[in-house]
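User: Can you help me understand a structure? I only have the sequence.
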Amino acid sequence: MTDPREEAGARLQTDRPHSARVWNYLLGGKDNYPVDSEAGDVILTTFPEFAAVARLQRRFLARAVRFLAGEVGIRQFLDIGTGLPTADNTHELAQRIAPESRIVYVDNDPLVLTHARALLTSTREGACAYVDADVRHPERILAEAARTLDLSRPVALTALGIMGQISDAERPAELLDTLMAALPRGSCLALSDGTDNNEALNRAVQVYNGQSANTYHLRSPQEIAAFFTGLDLVAPGVVATASWRPDAGRPEEPTADVSVCGVAVKN
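Assistant: Let's start by predicting it. Here is the structure, written out as tokens:
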């Protein structure tokens, strides 16, 4: 019988960079290994603005969740590709507006799940749950999420930087369609991903892919916009991440437009 501790250790793969840990390093976190910080430094050498891009995407999550919980009235969130806990996690943002909000976090990195279970605690009125699963297995995600969420009521699905980790051969649009098809009318999709229209970023990602345990696939803005097919986009549509409903009085730091995002509703 396999020792669960040995299995978890093997999955951590501390000899190779992992996306969640590299992202944590780029955001200034400490939950990473030397191999992750080294990969992050290689990315920053090739594309120095990448840390700013990571911060912009995190701020998009905050704006999107506040919009969904506040203006749209969503009370259930399915956060796929959680990443390591940092400030303003999905449940904190949603439960500040509506303490009864229920959130399911999904990730397949054992370090992420360990930290999430320890640090991401819900209000008494709401709920948080954690699913060890890969976006490539949407049916499993839905089955596990249904233990916490009422899938007959609207759910906001957040997918930040996740579709980029799925190759075209793995049919990322079909994975999203499977997830959204199981959610009722009034559900929403918030998505962002990196674009392929900057040569320095393309080189940085190519170097990263050559040494990482998981690869990232940049796409054109048009290809990313196609993930919203069949849904009704909320204004301003699919735009540069810094341009989606920016906070008044808080200008975003200048950086290259290398990621796009959007929010859409299933009607």
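Now, to help you interpret it: Confidence is low (pLDDT under 50) at residues 1-9. DSSP finds ten helices and eight strands in the chain. Let me know which part you'd like to focus on.
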